[in-house]
Amino acid sequence: MTTVKRPGSAARSAFRLGMLIAILLGLVVVATLYLRNVLTAATTGYVLLALFPVYLVLAASVLSVWLGYDKDATDLRPVYR
């Protein structure tokens, strides 16, 4: 049976740091657009409530693939009772 290579603690720390940077970057961009009157208050609320979570999922997906957390069908093992 083949051994499964799992990401270590460095990948976990890099993922956490990457997500924190993605959150800060996204909030800075939204705040900058709001302060420059590109976004209205209603549009800013929509961006934060509807689009920001989608952005975070995409950022987490990119980071997980880059750091080796992605899995495919070859990583599955049969389950027996």
Written account of the structure:
There is one protein chain. The protein has helices at 9-35, 41-67. Helix 1 runs antiparallel to helix 2. The chain is 67% helix and 0% strand. The protein has a domain at 38-70. The chain is mostly helical and 81 residues long.
Beta-strand proportion: under 5%
Average pLDDT, rounded to a whole number, is 89
Question: What does the largest sheet look like?
Answer: none
Kindly state the percentage of residues in helix. 55-70%
Q: In angstroms, what is the radius of gyration?
A: 18 Å
Number of helices: 2
Low-confidence stretches: none
Inertia-based shape: elongated
Give the SSE order as H and E letters.
HH
The number of strands is: 0
Quick overview:
The protein is an all-alpha fold. It contains 2 helices and no strands. It has a domain of 33 residues.
Blueprint (SSEs and pairs):
Blueprint (H helix, E strand, L loop, with lengths): L8 H27 L5 H27 L14
Structural descriptors:
elongated; mainly alpha; 81 residues
